[in-house]
Amino acid sequence: MATIKDIAERAGVSIATVSRVLNYDSTLSVSDETKKKIFQTAEELSYRKKSERRTSTYQIALVNWYTEEEELDDLYYMSIRLGVEKRCEFHKLKTRKVSLNEMAAIRGEEMNGVIAIGKFSQKQAEELRTVTENIVFVDCSPDEDFYDSVVSNFERATINVIDYFLKHGHHKIGFIGGKETYKDDHVDIADPRQVTFESYLKQKQLLDPSYVYMGSFSVNDGYKLMKQAIKDHGDNLPTAFFVGNDSMAIGCLRALHEENIPVPEKVSIIGVNDISVSKYVFPALSTVKVYTEFMGETAVDLLLERMTDRKIAKKVIISTQLEIRNSSRERME
Question: Which is more confident, 192 or 130?
């Protein structure tokens, strides 16, 4: 088994230098070329035991813009967080959950990296940078020229849903979605699902703005907004709705059931996220599967790359998958 001494001899540096580089000693002053040579030599010699051990000394701040209570209303961010924690455990990384209000408390601590889950403004990104420059954002990209990020391809997912509806004879298509705001300045964040929905249907000359309803990403708002849509349009209700997440879609199903509007015979519904209960509601919910846990795992991998001295920012876009179940079907005249 290769040792630090073996690496030092082949790389032509001291044992102390190898040890400090492999342990990411930020006080060590050596060239990037030397660091690269040491890491490459360690890889060539299959130096694994020490490499794995050193990750256990890393301290990672896990910053979630949602509170635990908010996570229960929208499981999207909880699933991402669980993916992050699972991957950190695999790599033996120490994690510390930190709320946005606690950022000042950790500035004096040694944090090797930050994974920020949720929507963060440019100002908030700069505040996180005062803790460490090793930052990965999940579900937003405040500055893709500087920060690493992992996002889902909601634009493509929305187009896939609309194409599905059009292929199955739906031309009156509604949208029920949620609004989110940055928590530091309360500015509304453009939702790629709504933006793409409106632009794509406008291209096809099928957009009716009165079919678009916005609230929060919760079961309750899905219920209330569908009730409002039924009241507004009556017999002219859209025959299909794309709904911003599964929680809202479940609320929509309840509202339609109460109004004796059969799903999918009269109205087809497709949600987003594919949460665990989606296949068990009645009718089973068609949805866009978002690989949330994989997003969290990918964020950890990006952070490890950053901590091994990658300087170029990387943005990873994760694909989605349309899962058709019983809440959507071909339009029947």
Answer: 192
Distance separating alpha carbons of residues 311 and 170, to the nearest angstrom: 48
Asked if 105 and 70 touch (Cβ cutoff 8 Å), the reply is no
Task: Enumerate domains of the chain plus CATH numbers.
Answer: 4-55 (1.10.260), 154-290 (3.40.50.2300)
pTM over 0.85? The answer is no
Decide which of 232 and 24 is more confident. Answer: 232
Those residues whose C-beta lies under 8 Å from the C-beta of residue 68, and which sit 6 or more positions away, are: none
**Order of strands across the sheet with 113-117?**
94-98, 59-64, 113-117, 135-138, 148-152, 315-318
> Please, are residues 206 and 235 in contact by the beta-carbon 8 Å criterion?
no
What is the DSSP secondary-structure string of 247-309?
HHHHHHHHHHHHTT--TTTT-EEEEEE--GGGGTSSSPPEEEEE-HHHHHHHHHHHHHHHHTT
Question: CA of 268: how far to CAs of 35, 228, 320, in Å?
Answer: 57, 17, 20
Encode pLDDT of 196-227 as tens digits.
999 999 999 999 999 999 999 999 999 999 99
